[in-house]
Amino acid sequence: xxxxxxxxxxxxAVLSLAAFMASLDxxxxxxxFDAIGADFPGSTLSQLSWVLNGYAIVYAALLVPxxxxxxxxxxxxxxxxxxxxxxxxxAACAASEGIWWLVGFRVLQAAxxxxxxxxxxxxxxxxxxxxxxxxxxxxWAATGALAAALGxxxxxxxxxxxxRWVFLVNVPIGVVALLAAAAWVPRSRDESVxxxxxxxxxxxxxxxxxxxxxxxxxxPSWGWGSGRLGxxxxxxxxxxxxxxxxxxxxxxPIIEPALLRVRAFAxxxxxxxxxxxxxxxxxxxxxxxMQQVWHYSAIRTGFxxxxxxxxxxxxxxxxxxxxxxxxxGWIVAAGCVLVGAGGVTTSLLVGATPNYAGSVLxxxxxxxxxxxxxxxxxxxxxTADLPPARAATGSAIVNMNRxxxxxLGVSVVIAVLGTPIGYAAAHAAFxxxxxxxxxxxxxxxxxxxxxxxxxxxTGGQAAEVAQPPATARMASPHx
Length: 479
Hints:
Strand content: under 5%
Number of strands: 0
């Protein structure tokens, strides 16, 4: 058998396949939302939201420490363990007989994804020859964009058979990837990583974000002035304070305080979090409108969603050209405004009679253009002012904040949408949801200009802006 290090193309294919699977699962589940609810009678929209939020919260909290653990003890072992957990949890999700069983297995899925994703990127970089390293990272990152484009359509096709196939499809792919990785992927670890990351801080962060999303999704049913809701707010605040204190005291914190003193990095994280809220909210709101108001099938909804993500690589390339002449923060700000404008456009055009081409598609395409201008640029420029040795950690933190924003975006949809009865009430509730998301998009646009790095992007850095969004850290060659 050939030396695995002599087959970098095979290694890249195997690792990209696993990353694609983990990314696909994020987008594919949105289309299955309605079918899952129908299969579990009595489950509310707020309960169903935890199928998405449980994954996002745990993924966000574990992404940085899992990456460091894999660096410390071995990336191949971390990748194989993460992939095995993700694959087994996918099978368990498909077999779930209740909504909370499904949520629990989704949490386990997220833990596996948080380990396999950064480990896979570290392995890609270690296996690629130096002269091909940047290209290998771009190929790996492109799997996230491909998953975003294919996810809704693939999900719609699978849900036509059963929503359980959304999870079952991961099992054969995961098994093949496991066998191939065991045979072909070389071992790799970072000798410079010697300290155990702040796991306590990660758990406190998960508790804080979990309590915050709980307060948002249950606020309408519990009552905004109820004691239970007050307790949830208090737990969220205590968790965030505990996370900050743990970060200050630990030798290997999740977020190094020194990084936040770098202006461009700090504002990139704020922009990433704020931008992810309308990004996630728009996807879920449009899907719920088409399925619950217009009564579209899952497959029709999936193909209706697909054109938006297809705009992303096109306008990421345009952002690449603009980045050499216009400050990147202003390009991102324009993208954020377009995302908000897309939601407002949809809210003004939709009506009781299904009219996809005339009422949903225009706003969805405008939003897709905005995502293409904003999201890849946020990810690629966030670490431009950081030392090379901190680039990988910095990118992981930005992606962590994206996941937190995603959970908050889903929670905002549930909180604002409520449980309207009748078309008039539903139309008003959906309009409020689109406008609320647009308001957060404007906040992201206000924050974006401050994320511009001190020095203009070089040609090489501008090229990175055209890369599709990765779902994990964009590690530097030093990792």
